[in-house]
Write a structure and sequence with these properties.
The chain has about 600 residues and is an alpha+beta fold. The chain has helices spanning about 5-10, 15-25, 50-65, 70-80, 85-95, 105-115, 120-135, 140-145, 155-165, 165-175, 185-190, 195-200, 215-220, 225-230, 235-250, 255-260, 265-275, 285-300, 310-325, 330, 335-350, 390-395, 400-405, 430, 475-485, 495-505, 510-515, 565-580, 595-600; strands spanning about 365-370, 380-385, 385-390, 420-425, 435-440, 445-450, 470-475, 515-525, 530-540, 555-560, 590. A four-stranded antiparallel β-sheet has the order 4-5-6-7. α8 (about 140-145) runs antiparallel to α9, α10 packs across α13 (about 215-220) and α15 (about 235-250) packs across α18. The model has no long low-confidence stretch (mean pLDDT about 90).
């Protein structure tokens, strides 16, 4: 860097904190825009002259030894060519700095200088990273303001989470709660109007589309939900909303570790369960209470830090509530198709969380179908010594379905070791990983060992410890796997039909191969669980063993609605139709490529 460039770089604009205060004053009601603000634009820098390794070294050299004043650190950043794009490297380097206790006061003072007077993104980032480690309550106002810049929300919330969870949640929601339906609540939280917070808290629709597990947790933290429940003990709308937020926090399809990160989870559970008798006997309330019970019996709720016997007591109370005669209203009230499906789920599943394990032994398999109104997945939950394995050691997605783990015999133990995928991240394995274990039989024992999972623990950046091997009595293990494979009490007609059609096609693959097709996935419909969805792949010449362009198959989808007759009869009829009629004439293309579909004379769906 030339001397002139260095002088220009050291001609500093106003502090970023002061700029944020100005933007707040100019905002209506002092509320920032959705998604917060961007940092002031600087002239676009050219290509980064530093390689990644050079940038890491430059950041470390600039930070060590930690200077006493912010001007010195700013000067070092300029001299080493540290730019806005190096913010992540700065956060990582500050997190790893050795800071003996005797240096804490000086480092904290430097962090405060940088956050309050820093004029560049690298300087303020370093200050925020120091306060993640050393912040105190007096830093909350400054962190809350700086966190409204999108570029700073991560470290600001990290620091606030340690000092003041409520402020952290308000900042997080201000930037990340982007749906229109949530904006009135975010506005009330930003302005601090407690009555408006209570009003808006029960007003927005708490559907999975709007409320992820993270949003649910942050809403509970920002609204100080446990305090609201204490101050409004007879407010049944608030009580139902509290239960709904707990359900969303523990959702396995999202990030169930949010429930564990919510410090007031147990006290809110206590409030909801002990006052649940006040709730109206509606389908929504029955489904919410049953979802809480399922989570406390075999889901993430098992992992909450409860006093001895407290979780069992909560489950007992829920069991009594759901067994009361008034709960029968859910069947009578169910008129529409979705309502009937939900009422059927409650009838099938209503006693599952309260049953004693059917077999003795360390291993337990619970097939849990979640609330169909939320389109929750069907999981084969694996519990070892009473603890659910997937949320405890993975936490990035639900356990696999019983179709895979049980119907395909994946959990059966043989002499030859077999690696089994127990769960996959909700995004994909390639993005956030999966959970694997190797299963083998050794004499009169079954061994689970050689676990594979992401390198960090769920909901943390900490390295994940190596998991131990687990040994099970072979006879008890085999009995539990056989019981779980035979249990169909959780299923509903469309799902049963899907299983029977799949079994029929496995037994007679020629039903599809005669049409140059092969079996794809078969299950109940996600958007409409009343339907069975049969998918298959089409390649000309497949049936003769000489497929054309095997790398370009077309995927078809055939939707079979439940007509109310026994699922066995419906599955048999579906298999007969596959035997007699080319499924390409009644299925629809749903995958492959537009070019290949047009080449073979099939219409390409607009939504594919």
């Amino acid at each position: 860097m030339s001397a002139q460039e260095e002088r220009d770089a050291l001609t500093l604009p106003p502090a970023l904190y002061d700029h944020a205060l100005y933007l707040l004053r100019e905002s209506p009601d002092g509320v920032p825009p959705r998604r917060g603000w961007s940092l002031p634009q600087k002239p676009r820098a050219g290509e980064d002259p530093l390689s990644l390794e050079e940038a890491k070294n430059a950041v470390r050299e600039a930070l060590y030894p930690l200077p006493d004043d912010s001007a010195t650190l700013h000067r070092r950043f300029v001299q080493h060519g540290i730019q806005d794009r190096h913010r992540r490297l700065i956060r990582s380097a500050v997190a790893g700095l050795p800071l003996p206790v005797g240096q804490w006061d000086a480092a904290r003072s430097l962090g405060r200088q940088l956050t309050r007077t820093g004029t560049t993104a690298p300087a303020v980032t370093a200050g925020l990273a120091l306060l993640v480690r050393l912040g105190e309550p007096e830093d909350v106002p400054y962190l809350s303001v700086l966190g409204l810049f999108r570029e700073f929300v991560g470290p600001a919330v990290d620091a606030l989470d340690i000092i003041d969870r409520q402020s952290a949640a308000v900042v997080w929601l201000a930037v990340y709660a982007r749906r229109d339906e949530l904006q009135p609540l975010v506005h009330a939280l930003r302005t601090g109007n407690r009555q408006a917070v209570r009003t808006e808290l029960v007003a927005f629709p708490a559907s999975p589309r709007l409320v992820s597990s993270a949003v649910a947790r942050r809403i509970a933290e920002a609204s100080q939900l446990h305090d609201l429940l204490d101050h409004h003990p007879s407010d049944t709308d608030l009580l139902a909303r509290a239960g709904r937020l707990l359900v969303r926090m523990g959702c396995s399809r999202d990030d169930p570790t949010d429930l564990l990160a919510y410090r007031d989870a147990l006290s809110v559970y206590e409030s909801v369960v002990t006052r649940a008798g006040l709730l109206q006997p509606t389908l929504d309330n029955a489904a919410m209470l049953l979802s809480l019970a399922l989570d406390l019996s075999s889901g993430t709720g098992v992992l909450l830090d409860c006093p001895p016997g407290r979780r069992a007591a909560l489950l007992e109370s829920l069991g009594q509530l759901l067994a009361e005669p008034r709960s029968a209203v859910v069947g009578a009230a169910a008129s529409e198709a979705d309502q009937r499906l939900r009422a059927g789920w409650i009838r099938r599943t209503g006693r599952q969380p309260f049953k004693r394990p059917a077999t003795s032994g360390r291993l337990r398999i619970e097939v849990v179908a979640g609330d169909p109104a939320d389109r929750e997945p069907v999981e084969a939950r694996v519990l070892i010594d009473g603890r659910p394995v997937v949320p405890a050691v993975f936490g990035r997605g639900p356990a696999h379905s019983p179709d895979y783990l049980l119907d395909d015999g994946q959990l059966r133990a043989g002499v030859e070791p077999r690696e089994v995928q127990l769960a996959e991240a909700w995004c994909t394995e390639g993005c956030c990983g999966a959970l694997y274990v190797t299963i083998r039989r050794e004499g009169n024992q079954v061994v689970w060992e050689n676990w594979r999972r992401p390198q960090t623990t769920p909901g943390s950046r900490e390295p994940a410890p190596e998991l131990p091997a687990f040994r099970f009595d072979a006879s008890a293990y085999d009995a539990e796997i056989a019981r779980a494979e035979a249990d169909r009490s959780w299923s509903w007609p469309a799902r049963t039909m899907a299983r029977l059609i799949k079994a029929g096609l496995i037994e007679k693959p020629e039903l599809l191969s005669q049409w140059d097709a092969s079996r794809g996935w078969i299950s109940s419909g996600f958007d409409d669980p009343h339907t069975t969805v049969v998918t298959f792949w089409y390649m000309p010449g497949l049936g003769s063993g000489r497929p054309e362009r095997a790398d370009s198959p077309l995927q078809f989808r055939w939707v079979v609605p439940d007509d109310g007759t026994p699922p066995e009869a419906q599955a048999a009829a579906a298999l007969r139709r596959l035997a007699e009629e080319d499924p390409k004439t009644y299925g629809r293309v749903c995958g492959g490529s537009r070019e290949r579909a047009e080449e073979l004379g099939f219409p390409w769906p607009d939504s594919a």
